[in-house]
Amino acid sequence: MSSLTEKDRPIVQLLLSTGTCPRCIFRFCCMGSQAPYKRPHKELMKELKEFLKKNPQKEDTVCIEVADPPCKRIRLENTEEQPDDLNENGVLKEIPLVNEDNTALESSAVKVCNVCLGILQEFCEVDFVKKVCQKVKSADYQFTSFVFSVSLPPQLSVRERAAWLLVKQEMGKLGLSLAKDDIVQLKEAYKWIIHPQLSEELGVPADGKSLFEVSVVFAHPETDEECHFLARACPDCFKPAKNKQSVFTRMAVIKALEKIKEEDFCKHFSCPPSSPKNCCVALEIQCSNGAVFVAGKYNKYSRNLPQTPWIIDGERKLESSVEELISEHLMAEFKADSFNFSSSGREDVDVRTLGNGRPFAVELVNPRRIHFTAEEMKGLQQTINDSSDKIQVRDLQLVTRSAIGHMKEGEEEKTKTYSALVWTDKAIQKEDIAFLDDLKELKLDQKTPLRVLHRRPLAVRQRVIHTMKSEYIDEHHFRLRLRTQAGTYIKEFVHGDFGRTKPNIGSLLNRTADILELDVESVDVDWPPALDN
């Protein structure tokens, strides 16, 4: 059982008389049990009035039955001397206490709270909960739980500070103290009230670890007006920022409140906070799902297809790309807002990827649909493969964000196998290239190729050709199969890139060499796991 006791009477009487709602009064009484906050506003107001009417000599408490023990307690400290009345210094106004005949009690039930600006009043009611749930349901998301987030107007911190200073003064007169950190946070109290209602209406539990988020952004028309004095007192706390309509952000206001002295605060802001002209408004009600990750391996059969959109100086060079041919179908099925494509390395536009394919992963941002069976994923894979003869995918599956790290782990230590069609200017015989088969662990110094210098930093990178096997075709052509360290520039190893790669096939053969075709035959990354397709 949790209850208001006689020590809470001054707080209840003071705040109720200044226009504070019952739930905010509970917060200032440090009531950490959730159940009282969830009760109807009218009942709470009625009980507070009855509490104040009770004879303190006969009744010490008003019981508000709850199941949860309180998590916060008011700190009572006996002071040796009564503090001076701040009124004598002109800092805080004396607030008349309310008795059972005072009509202020009656009117306080309908006024917008001067501390929470209606957050713990109107926006805890069934009508608002239904409005939020209607928005969620119309957005057509799949979810099995939810996390609720709320953004509050910055001046609520200012108003709470003003109410706390007032209460602290009154408590001091009684030899008691109230620490600011003991007050129940507004967001916490709001979630205690709203979570069970949303959960019941949506039919799923609230879960702090859920990937599905329901968020409400509250705003108030007088935010700038009420916070302006802080900008004068603490100008360093308020800096214009991109994408921010106002300098009075929540963090900036909190920072300023930490810096400003109490006496300066009281000179510029009313204590108690004045009755608001307007209630808060729910500016936005939004839903979002955490990203879903899909992985697989792709084969690329075209020599005229880039891995990612090929755009130079704002102009698109080719009509499609590997990532688009895959991701457009994933986007449609998962009903996502956008995607991010990544892979284990990349091939040039004119290079094919054969063998078991190249591992890739797609992050689908804010998907509406998130549940797919293995059979549905297999069907999605088939849809992708039927849509184009330029690519094929295999082992398409849902993965976790952390699993994607396997694709990038030790990337430079991985090996890749290539097949290159090589041309030489001087005639060659089979015996001229046979020695290449005997070269093992050939070390290269590769200066950043000219063709990628516009997007890669200038550096000399050491790479290794593990093995080579040559296949003679005619006097000017042979096929070369190479197993190399990942990250090796194969084209430059063949033609030398004007001496920027040393050694190279041209220098080894003592003649000019060039590459006519290149295929990636294997990428030795054992991820994602192979499926029985």
UniProtKB/TrEMBL annotation:
Gene Ontology terms, MF aspect: metal ion binding; RNA binding; tRNA pseudouridine(55) synthase activity
Enzyme class: isomerase
InterPro entries: PsdUridine_synth_cat_dom_sf, Pus10-like, Pus10-like_C, Pus10_N_euk
Gene3D superfamilies: 1.10.10.2050, 3.30.70.2510, 3.30.70.3190
Gene Ontology CC: mitochondrion; nucleus
Top-level taxon of origin: Eukaryota
Subcellular localization(s) per the UniProt record: Cytoplasm; Mitochondrion; Nucleus
Catalysed reaction equations from the record: uridine(54) in tRNA = pseudouridine(54) in tRNA; uridine(55) in tRNA = pseudouridine(55) in tRNA
UniProtKB keywords: Coiled coil, Cytoplasm, Isomerase, Metal-binding, Mitochondrion, Nucleus, tRNA processing, Zinc
Residue span, Pus10-like C-terminal domain: 293-524
EC number: 5.4.99.25
Pfam families for this protein: Pus10_C, Pus10_N_euk
Coiled-coil intervals, chain numbering: none
Residues in Pus10 N-terminal eukaryotes domain copies: 113-287
GTP-binding in keyword set: no
Any one GO BP annotation for this protein: tRNA pseudouridine synthesis
UniProt similarity note: Belongs to the pseudouridine synthase Pus10 family.
Protein name: tRNA pseudouridine synthase Pus10
Organism: Nothoprocta ornata
